[in-house]
Specification:
mainly alpha; 4 helices; Small_multidrug_res; membrane; cell membrane; transmembrane
């Protein structure tokens, strides 16, 4: 269950960061509300995950999911242009997240 909470936390980190961008400096009410709700769900799920997962495992995976998800959203939704080297480091981040999970023993 803690891994599911961690996955939810990471997904909602992407939700709130995307909504924050769309809120245009918190000037668009709907996206501002989605940002706050997304933060609450993300942080709340991270809290639940860290009840049984060590912080040294949960936090980097949470931030990694958020980082990779935000890159994907940025490219698809905001048409961000990334260099080839940036893509290489994004792949390394995904490999690192998987490696942390596989070697955690949890």
């Amino acid at each position: 269950m803690s891994w599911i909470c961690l996955l939810i936390a990471g997904i909602f980190e992407v939700v709130w960061s995307t909504a924050m961008k769309l809120s245009n400096g918190f000037s668009v009410l709907l996206y501002s509300v989605i940002t706050v709700i997304g933060m609450i769900i993300s942080f709340g799920s991270l809290v639940l995950a860290t009840k049984s997962l060590p912080l040294s495992l949960a936090y980097p995976i949470w931030t990694g999911i958020g980082a990779v998800g935000s890159v994907i959203v940025g490219v698809i939704l905001f048409h961000d242009q990334l260099s080839g080297l940036t893509w290489v480091f994004g792949v390394l981040l995904v490999v690192s997240i998987i490696g942390i999970k596989m070697t955690s023993g949890n």
